[in-house]
TrEMBL record:
The protein's name in its UniProt record: PhnB protein
Pfam families: Glyoxalase
Superkingdom of the organism of origin: Bacteria
UniProt xrefs under InterPro entries: Glyas_Bleomycin-R_OHBP_Dase (IPR029068), Glyas_Fos-R_dOase_dom (IPR004360), PhnB-like (IPR028973)
Domain Glyoxalase/fosfomycin resistance/dioxygenase: 11-128
Length: 136
């Protein structure tokens, strides 16, 4: 069994996924626009260039997404958590993803982690970045 986040965007899915691929070292393995839908789908002209379906592979993980501007609602009650091995990697990812976003808890040391942060990026995606303390 595998769980994959499916994110919705307000019309900036392509921009968000290209940014995530760059920051997270991933590869966009699919990006289909609404213009590629069959003619009977009756896609509005303003939606034609928006993303109908995208897949981003990061390591063995797959993220999927699409634009859904007419039904978009900000994510609530969840975060995508990124677990990293070093404080430096935690800081790098936090700095890049949180820029222009809303920080709930800035990057800091906690009783369980060398580095931990909670924020929502500029695209509306809620994240947690965690670098555990070494096991003793």
């Amino acid at each position: 069994m595998q769980f994959s986040p499916y994110l919705n965007f307000q019309g900036n899915c392509k921009e968000a996924f290209e940014f995530y691929a760059q920051v997270l070292g991933g590869e966009i393995i699919a990006m289909m626009s609404f213009a590629e839908a069959p003619p009977e789908a009756d896609i509005s002209p303003e939606a034609r260039d928006q993303v109908m379906h995208a897949q981003l592979k990061v390591g063995e993980q797959i993220f999927m997404a699409s634009d859904a501007p007419s039904s978009y609602k900000p994510a609530q009650g969840m975060h995508i958590t990124i677990g990293v091995d070093t404080p430096e990697e935690a800081e790098r990812i936090y700095k890049a993803l949180s820029e222009g976003g809303e920080i709930t808890m800035p990057m800091e040391e906690t009783f369980w982690a060398q580095r931990f942060a909670v924020f929502t990026d500029r695209f509306g995606t809620p994240w947690m970045v965690n670098c555990d303390k070494p096991q003793q």
